[in-house]
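The records we work with from here on pair a chain with its fold. Taken together, the C-alpha cells spell out the fold as the letters spell out the chain. To see the layout at work, look at the sequence and C-alpha cells printed below.
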Amino acid sequence: MDSAERGDCGRCSSRSCQCIGEEFWRREDVIEALRIRDACALIRLARRYTDLTQQELAEITGLTQPMISLIERGKTRRLGRERQQRALHGLEARATLLPPMEEWGDSQAMAALEAVSGEGPNRAGVNAAQISAYVMLWARAASAPPAPPRKTAPVSPAMVAALEDVTEALRRADAAHGSAGLAPFAAAQLTAAQRMLAAAGEEGVRRRLYRAAADLAGLAGWLAVDAGDYDRARPLFAAALRSAHQAGDVVLGAGIASSVAVQSYSLGQGLQAALIARTALERTVSRATPLVRAMLHTRVARGHAVDGDRLPALRALENAREAFEQGPSDEDPSWLYWMSPGEMHGQAAAVHLSLGEDEQALQLLEQADRTYDSACVRDHARCTVRSAGALARLGELDHACERAHRALDMEVGSVRLAYEVMGLLSDLEPYDDEARVAELRDHAAPLLDSALR
C-alpha cells in the first residue's frame, strides 16, 4: 500500500497508523462489499490491498487474529449480526480517520470542544459510523492523565456551579417544552465552558469544568436530536464523550452514549443502537446505579425492537424492569431525574409498537399516561400521540382523535413530536373524509409548520 492509503493521515506516525486511505475505498470490489455490508469480504480485501497485518485488523474490527486468518483463507464467510456490525464500524471509522486510541487526552478534548463551541475554524462533521466508533473508543480509553500545568486564571468553583445550574435549567426547559429555541442558549453556554477550560489551571476545577462541559455538550447534542439535526448532534456527542473522559465520569459518559443510541434507533439503525447501549453497560458495570442500568437496558431493547428482533428486545426490556424495580439511589446522577415509572412504561410500549404489537403497547401507554413525571411534558406528549396511533390502528377513531388533541394541547415544540404526529396522520388517512380527522389536521398544522419548516 502506498502512503496515500496508510500513514498519511496527518495524525498518526507512519509506523503506527491504522487509518485506511481513500484509494482503498474507491475500488469497485470494496464499494460492492460496503454496499452489501459484507465485513468478511472487506477484511479479505483489506489484507489484499493494504499492508495491515492480521493482528491490526483484529484490533480494528474487534475480532481475534485467528478469526481474521480464517476469514482471509475463506474458511469463514459470515459473521453473527453483532460481530458483523462491530467489524464494519471499526473499518469505516478508519476510513474517516478517527483518532487512534492513545489520543484521548486534554488537548484532544479541548480541540473537540473548540470545534463545536463556535470558537474554532474547523467545524467538520462526524458521520454515523464515526460517532458509533467514538463510543467504542470511549469505553476502551485508558484513564485520563492529569492535564499539563498551565497559566491559571480566576475560574472559581462558583463560576462552575453557575454553569451547572444553567445546564440543569436548560435540561428542565427541554423536558417541559421541547428543544425549540433552546439550541442558541446551549451554544452560548458551551462557548463559555470552553473559554473557562482554556483559562483554568487548577486540576480540581478543570475536572469539574470538564464534567460540566460534557453534560452541556451532551445536552446540546440531545437538543439537536430532538430538533432532527443529526449532523449537528454527532460532533457534540463526540466532544461530550471526550470531556466526560477527561472528567473521569464514566456514568456521565454512559448517559451521553445512551443519547447516541437514541439517535441511532431513531434513524432505523437498531443493531447499532443496541451495541452502543450494551457497550455503555459494560463500561459502567461496577459504577452504574440500578436506574442507570435500567435506562441503558431500555436503549438496548429499543434498538433490537427497531430491527424486529423480538426475543433480544424482550430480554433487554425484562433486564430494564428488574433494574428499575431495585429503586432509586442516592448515587443516581441528577440528569436522570426523568427515569420514572411513566418513562419505563413508555419505553416498554415503544418496544411493543416497533414489534407491531399495538394491543400490548396500548396497555402500557395507559399506565404511562397515569405515571409520567409532571416535568416531562414533551415525553408525555409523545406517549399520548403513540397511544392515539395505536387506537387508530385498532379502529378506535374517536378515542384516537381525543388523545391526539390532548397531546397537541400540551404545546410542545419538538421535531420528534412532529414526526410522531405525522405518523398518526398517516394512520388516519383512510378516514380523511371524516370531519373529526380534518379538525385534527388543522389542530396539528401549527406544530408541523413550525417544527418542520
Q: What stands out?
A: Residues 1-16, 96-101, 119-123 have pLDDT under 50 and may be disordered. The radius of gyration is 23 Å. The CA atoms of residues 398 and 436 lie 8 Å apart.
